[in-house]
Specification:
With 242 residues, the protein is of the alpha+beta class. The protein is built from three helices and ten strands; from the N terminus they run βββββαββββαβα. Strands 4-3-10-9-8-7 form a six-stranded mixed beta sheet. A four-stranded mixed beta sheet has the order 1-2-5-6, with helices on one face. A hairpin with a 2-residue loop joins strand 1 and strand 2. It starts with 16 loop residues before the first strand and ends in a 19-residue tail after the last helix.
């Protein structure tokens, strides 16, 4: 019997990000929109569209410093509607100017990052934090992977992206693991019959390693203006594979 090999699906192009500007309360604010379209599954901790499921767009919106709204999910939904993003999607927010985003690519994986690091620190804090409103100074990471992954591998890619983010911040000499409100969104292709669904997303798996390198590049670029290196030499690394 001759094996029938299903036709390969062409890899999607890297995300094309639209930059948009709006005015709120007399302040000019910016946003990035990726209209992913059909055929994508995403995992995110975002306030809008978080969890795992089919998603068609990702909006990363700048908000004012001192943000006081208590319904950020509704705010993001309104912004997405205003720019014509239809169907289910993911909404992120940050006080950083999103036009200064960083990007990275490795082996078909594309990562974009924005970095608002004014309220940075270490994840394990030995003092109980005060219960305050969410502050939008944030590191936001969006990753696009051109193949299907299992749910477990999706969770693993979030871990991998977070580890790569911390590595990039430390390599840049920043004394932190991130901010209290960091967000991640990983987008992968929806499985189709006859196509392999990859089961691993850790940093030594094929796609996890590519995620890690792409995220490291993106966060390094986005965090570059965040502060002095504090005398810490930056780690030399081999040139990433493209």
């Amino acid at each position: 019997m001759t094996a029938v090999v299903p036709p390969s699906r062409p890899a999607p192009a890297p995300p094309l990000v639209e930059q948009m500007t709006r005015t709120e309360d007399g302040e000019t604010l910016n946003a990035l929109l990726w209209r992913a379209g059909e055929g994508w599954r995403m995992i995110s901790n975002a306030v809008l569209g978080g969890g795992i499921g089919d998603r068609a767009w990702v909006l990363n919106a700048q908000v004012a410093h001192g943000y006081r709204r208590t319904d950020p999910y509704r705010h993001l939904a309104d912004l997405a509607r205003d720019v014509g993003a239809h169907g289910p999607g993911v909404g992120l927010m940050t006080a950083a100017d999103v036009r200064a985003y960083g990007s990275g690519q490795d082996g078909g994986v594309t990562a974009l990052a924005t970095a608002g690091l004014g309220v940075r620190g270490w994840a394990a804090s030995w003092t109980e934090p005060a219960m305050t409103a969410v502050r939008p100074g944030t590191v936001n990471i969006v990753v696009a992977v051109p193949v299907p992954l299992t749910d477990a591998a999706l969770v693993n890619t979030v871990m991998t992206a977070t580890e790569a983010k911390v590595q990039a911040l430390v390599d840049a000499g920043l004394d932190c693991s991130g901010t209290p409100t960091d967000a991640v969104c990983v987008a992968v292709r929806r499985p189709v019959p006859g196509e392999e669904t990859h089961a691993f997303g850790g940093p030594r798996s094929l796609w996890g390693a590519r995620v890690a390198r792409a995220v490291h590049q993106a966060v390094t670029e986005a965090a570059a203006p965040a502060g002095p290196t504090r005398g810490r030499p930056r780690t030399a690394r081999p040139r990433p594979r493209r």
